[in-house]
Amino acid sequence: RIPEPTVARLPVYRRLLASLVAGRIRTVSSTELAAAAGVNAATLRRDLSHLGTYGTPGTGYDVVRLGEMVDRALALGRDWPIVIAGAGNLGRALARSRGFTTGGFRVVALVDVDPGQVGRTIEGVPIAHVEQLAELVVREGVALGVVATPASAAADVARRLADAGVRAILNFAPAVVPSPGGVLVRSVDLAAELQVLTFHLARARGE
Amino acid sequence: RIPEPTVARLPVYRRLLASLVAGRIRTVSSTELAAAAGVNAATLRRDLSHLGTYGTPGTGYDVVRLGEMVDRALALGRDWPIVIAGAGNLGRALARSRGFTTGGFRVVALVDVDPGQVGRTIEGVPIAHVEQLAELVVREGVALGVVATPASAAADVARRLADAGVRAILNFAPAVVPSPGGVLVRSVDLAAELQVLTFHLARARGE
Ligand SMILES: NC(=O)c1ccc[n+]([C@@H]2O[C@H](COP(=O)([O-])OP(=O)(O)OC[C@H]3O[C@@H](n4cnc5c(N)ncnc54)[C@H](O)[C@@H]3O)[C@@H](O)[C@H]2O)c1
Ligand SMILES: NC(=O)c1ccc[n+]([C@@H]2O[C@H](COP(=O)([O-])OP(=O)(O)OC[C@H]3O[C@@H](n4cnc5c(N)ncnc54)[C@H](O)[C@@H]3O)[C@@H](O)[C@H]2O)c1
């Protein structure tokens, strides 16, 4: 099993390797790659050893080969259709973002309960009613669901996504969403990120 | 020093305690609070012991007192003025979000380089030119900066925020942003969150 902190660093290595490939750099040392990633070289070497790659002493890692290994570990390069539940501020920003949909991730639809939203499109992506979720997931082969609804609706929406057949869920609502039927749920709480910052600021002042 | 995973769970406990207080519940056991937070009871007890509170065997924790301790540790309830750099899709969604600005966090301005954005307002919050950042931070006593610019501008914007006097930065751009002049930087990469999900999906299928 690969430790969770290692998994969370793989997307950073992927991005750095992609820009090295674009810059036609053939090899990179663990020290250089670690410095660019903001981690120490021993951590990077340990992380990459979990993928079964050790680099060659003296020359480092083959950039193209390492990039492919990390891409394969992250299962990138395939088609990952996504549905976003909640076509509000955040849902619409995610649907519009080129940054969110890199590496094969593709928002195929948003769903909402607000009749004023249903039937519209965001950059060509349709907003359907949440009642049509099951049919949409099957038709489009949707693998991933994103929850961008109010916290009060989050657990119910996650259950509907799982029942419809999605295999993993990214939840942005500030609520603890239990994993419906064994489907993987990962939560990101943007407001909590600010609170972690103020925690450290208060500590730094000795409070 | 409190371990980082403990710090990251405090906002979840805070939210749950706030809803117990609203529900006029006087005490809560570590088992109940842990179940609501989706962690095991031993982890919760260890987390709270870092704040110096142990609960009473048999009755559990005093909800109001525990809520106040967690709020104090997170330095909530004060006024935390925020400036958002980048008034694009994400910056505007954050400025509009009631969910992002709870517990004393207040977006006082956005800054941008696009003349088409400068001079507008988002729900009453002005968009200024990034050249006015330093004057804005001093005038409004801004403590926190949020980076919602393209990745190419992120490190430069973080430096400007630090030079202007902000004390901590939350970065949403997919770039490694070094901590300018010792100012705390925390990065959240929304696209990377999807990649962690697909990593686990690929693993689950034995790939
Ligand atoms: N906007 C942000 O930047 C931001 C920041 C932090 C947290 N969040 C969290 O993200 C979530 C969305 O925030 P927002 O600002 O977009 O809110 P919003 O109110 O603008 O949008 C929520 C949308 O969800 C829809 N909805 C409600 N119930 C639904 C259901 N059962 N099924 C499908 N859709 C449903 C609503 O009709 C609405 O369109 C909230 O939980 C919020 O706390 C958002
Ligand atoms: N929108 C999302 O949901 C989302 C999801 C994942 C990642 N991100 C990341 O968040 C960042 C913002 O994304 P977006 O979708 O809002 O992009 P966007 O292009 O809509 O907005 C970016 C804004 O930054 C401004 N800007 C550029 N250089 C600047 C500078 N030096 N100082 C101040 N402002 C500057 C631009 O004028 C523009 O208004 C990007 O790095 C993106 O990869 C966004």
Can you put this structure into words, describing what you see?
Two copies of one chain form a homodimer. In chain A, about 45% of the residues lie in helices and about 20% in strands. Chain A is of the alpha/beta class and about 210 residues long. Chain A folds into two domains: about 5-70, Orthogonal Bundle (Arc Repressor Mutant, subunit A); about 80-190, Rossmann fold (3-Layer(aba) Sandwich), CATH 3.40.50. In chain A, strand 7 (about 145), helix 7 (about 150-165) and strand 8 form a beta-alpha-beta unit. In chain A, helix 1 crosses helix 4, helix 2 (about 30-35) packs across helix 3 (about 40-50) and helix 6 (about 135-140) crosses helix 7. The structure holds nicotinamide-adenine-dinucleotide (2 copies). One nicotinamide-adenine-dinucleotide sits at the interface of chains A and B.
CATH topology of the largest domain in chain A, by name, is Rossmann fold
Give the helix/strand class of chain A.
Answer: alpha/beta
H and E order of chain A: HEHHEHEHEEEHEHEEH
Largest β-sheet summary of chain A: 7 strands, mixed
Name the poorly predicted regions of chain A.
none
Give the count of helical stretches of chain A.
Answer: 8
Assembly type of the chains comes to: homodimer
Q: Fraction of residues of chain A in helices?
A: 40-55%
CATH architect. name of the largest domain in chain A: 3-Layer(aba) Sandwich
Largest interface: A-B, 63 and 63 residues
What is the terminal-to-terminal distance of chain A? 39 Å
Bound ligands, each once? nicotinamide-adenine-dinucleotide
Shape of chain A: globular
The CATH class of the largest domain in chain A turns out to be Alpha Beta
The tally of domains of chain A stands at: 2
CATH superfamily of the largest domain in chain A: NAD(P)-binding Rossmann-like Domain
Total count of strands of chain A: 9
Computed CA radius of gyration of chain A, to the nearest angstrom: 20 Å
The pLDDT mean of chain A sits at 94
Query: How much β-strand is present in the residues of chain A?
Result: 15-25%
List the strand order in the largest sheet of chain A.
5-6-4-3-7-8-9
